[in-house]
């Protein structure tokens, strides 16, 4: 009986600490705001390739920078009338023969949660994987966009590690409409990928 009560208490405490509120009333993660990543391997590139099998074709490239990661989105085939579209780094990779549902939730290294939606003007308070929340949604039929996310990491031991995870596009209803894994590009020996 005492064990059940203790377990219930721990569960309730976990729920109560899943978010924090900053002095100005902004929701942030239970572990505080995301921290800028300053030790990424500069020039290391990871690419999510959307092959058109889900209607969307193109790439999202993530390249290590002195602070965070530089992202380039170059996508076509976004379905008309279904946007605007969110895009996120999810916690898991798309398994072989899997579906976008198998990629888990958004990458949320600081335990923030999706609700309330993140405030784009305060990106450190957002889920690390909520790229569209921080840098804007995209719309049909195509999107070309670049931005730097200081909270994305390319080192496995860092919070915010994006490697070997999936990027997922969601339509306006939040349905997962396309996903692709971030795959490390081979280096040419000069710190640049092929």
Automatic annotation (TrEMBL):
EC numbers, comma separated: 1.15.1.1
Molecular functions per Gene Ontology: metal ion binding; superoxide dismutase activity
Reactions that this protein is recorded to catalyse: 2 superoxide + 2 H(+) = H2O2 + O2
Compartment annotation: Cell envelope; Secreted
Matches recorded under InterPro entries: SOD-like_Cu/Zn_dom_sf (IPR036423)
Entry keywords, A to Z: Antioxidant, Secreted, Signal
Cellular component annotations (GO), alphabetically ordered: extracellular region
Signal peptide interval: 1-20
Sequence similarity: Belongs to the Cu-Zn superoxide dismutase family.
Protein name as it appears in the record: superoxide dismutase
């Amino acid at each position: 009986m005492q064990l059940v009560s203790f377990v219930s208490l721990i569960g309730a405490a976990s729920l109560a600490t899943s978010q924090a509120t900053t002095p100005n009333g902004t929701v942030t993660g239970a572990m505080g705001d995301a921290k800028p990543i300053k030790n990424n391997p500069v020039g290391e590139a990871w690419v999510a390739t959307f092959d058109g099998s889900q209607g969307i074709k193109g790439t999202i490239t993530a390249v290590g920078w002195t602070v965070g990661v530089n992202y380039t989105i170059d996508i076509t085939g976004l379905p008309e009338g279904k946007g605007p579209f969110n895009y996120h780094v999810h916690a898991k990779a798309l398994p072989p023969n899997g579906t976008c549902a198998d990629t888990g939730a958004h990458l949320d290294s600081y335990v923030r949660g999706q609700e309330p939606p993140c405030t784009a003007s305060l990106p450190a308070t957002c889920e690390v994987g909520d790229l569209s929340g921080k840098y804007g949604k995209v719309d049909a039929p195509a999107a070309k966009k670049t931005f730097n996310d200081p909270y994305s990491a390319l080192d496995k031991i860092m919070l915010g590690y994006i490697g070997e995870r999936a990027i997922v596009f969601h339509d306006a209803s939040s349905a997962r409409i396309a996903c692709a894994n971030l795959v490390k590009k081979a280096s040419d020996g000069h710190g640049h990928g092929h």
